Fold this sequence. Notes:
215 residues; 10-stranded mixed sheet; DHBP synthase; alpha/beta; 10 strands
Amino acid sequence: MEIVSTKDISKVVKVLEKGGIVCAPTDTIYGLLADATNKEAVERLYEIRRPSGRPFIVLLPDISYVLKFDVLITKLSIALLSIGVTVIFPKRTTIPTYLTRWRKSIAFRVPAQGVFIKNLLKKFGKPLVAPSANPEGLKPASDIKEAMEYFGDKIDLYVKGAKLTGKPSTIVKLISKKAIKIIREGNVPKEQVLNMVSSLASPLGSLPFEIEPFL
């Protein structure tokens, strides 16, 4: 177990690349981070953080990264990702089951805030699973002191940042090409999400890449 500051991104990257688990500030609250492409790291994090096996949210380095996953994409889902909402995408067939726990969907978020987590994702260059820093059923840790009381040396590296007492991410589920269900209202207000949905009744305009239709 080691403690570093938010300036030590290179150290954090090295731990993640070796399959380690990191507690660090995210765009919302403190989270437990692991390389989403490393099955062993993700499985270890399930043992530590979520024995129930409910899937983790996956943080993406940028919006275009969603194309690397076999999910159904819409203009609305891309628009919601652009404002930092967690979006539950219907998956197809090839996403590893260790990420989805055999469910028919997967949740992604592209952090819109949080200098540290945005820089970390950019430098790491791969997605991260990122549940909140608390055992199931307990309140999220607001700093690494609380996180260390929860997890101790089960976590390889703690990143000390400012105290975070905000809301977790807003989560929405795609229902159709232009319809969603709000699963949890969090950091992005429900009104902002609904305004985004309404605005897409008219054409969104050009996107930075091609998308496939919702089937």
